[in-house]
C-alpha cells in the first residue's frame, strides 16, 4: 500500500489481463487422473490376487438366494 498517494503503476487494468486458455488445464487433469485410476485399479487387483494366493485374505464366496 503506497504511503505517498495512490500509485497504481504496478497494477494492471482488468481489461488488459490476458485470459488463460482452460483447454490445456482440462487436458492436464485428464492426463493425470485417468492413468491414476487405471493404475490404482491394477494395483488393487494384483494385491487382492497376492493376498488370496498366500491365504492372507480370501473373500468368502457364499450365495444367499
UniProtKB/TrEMBL annotation:
<keyword id="KW-0812">Transmembrane</keyword>
<comment type="function">
    <text>Essential regulatory subunit of the mitochondrial calcium uniporter complex (uniplex), a complex that mediates calcium uptake into mitochondria.</text>
</comment>
<dbReference type="InterPro" id="IPR018782">
    <property type="entry name" value="MCU_reg"/>
</dbReference>
<protein>
    <recommendedName>
        <fullName>Essential MCU regulator, mitochondrial</fullName>
    </recommendedName>
</protein>
<keyword id="KW-0999">Mitochondrion inner membrane</keyword>
<feature type="transmembrane region" description="Helical">
    <location>
        <begin position="26"/>
        <end position="44"/>
    </location>
</feature>
<keyword id="KW-0109">Calcium transport</keyword>
<dbReference type="GO" id="GO:1990246">
    <property type="term" value="C:uniplex complex"/>
</dbReference>
<comment type="similarity">
    <text>Belongs to the SMDT1/EMRE family.</text>
</comment>
<keyword id="KW-0472">Membrane</keyword>
<keyword id="KW-0106">Calcium</keyword>
<dbReference type="GO" id="GO:0036444">
    <property type="term" value="P:calcium import into the mitochondrion"/>
</dbReference>
<keyword id="KW-0809">Transit peptide</keyword>
<dbReference type="GO" id="GO:0051560">
    <property type="term" value="P:mitochondrial calcium ion homeostasis"/>
</dbReference>
<dbReference type="Pfam" id="PF10161">
    <property type="entry name" value="DDDD"/>
</dbReference>
<keyword id="KW-0496">Mitochondrion</keyword>
<keyword id="KW-0406">Ion transport</keyword>
<comment type="subunit">
    <text>Component of the uniplex complex. Interacts (via the transmembrane region) with MCU (via the first transmembrane region); the interaction is direct.</text>
</comment>
<keyword id="KW-0813">Transport</keyword>
<keyword id="KW-1133">Transmembrane helix</keyword>
Amino acid at each position: 500500500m503506497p504511503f505517498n498517494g495512490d500509485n497504481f503503476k504496478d497494477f494492471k487494468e482488468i481489461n488488459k489481463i490476458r485470459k488463460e486458455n482452460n483447454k490445456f488445464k482440462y487436458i492436464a487433469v485428464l492426463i493425470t487422473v485417468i492413468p491414476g485410476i487405471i493404475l490404482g485399479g491394477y494395483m488393487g487387483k494384483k494385491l487382492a490376487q497376492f493376498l488370496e494366493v498366500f491365504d492372507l485374505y480370501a473373500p468368502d464366496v457364499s450365495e444367499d438366494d
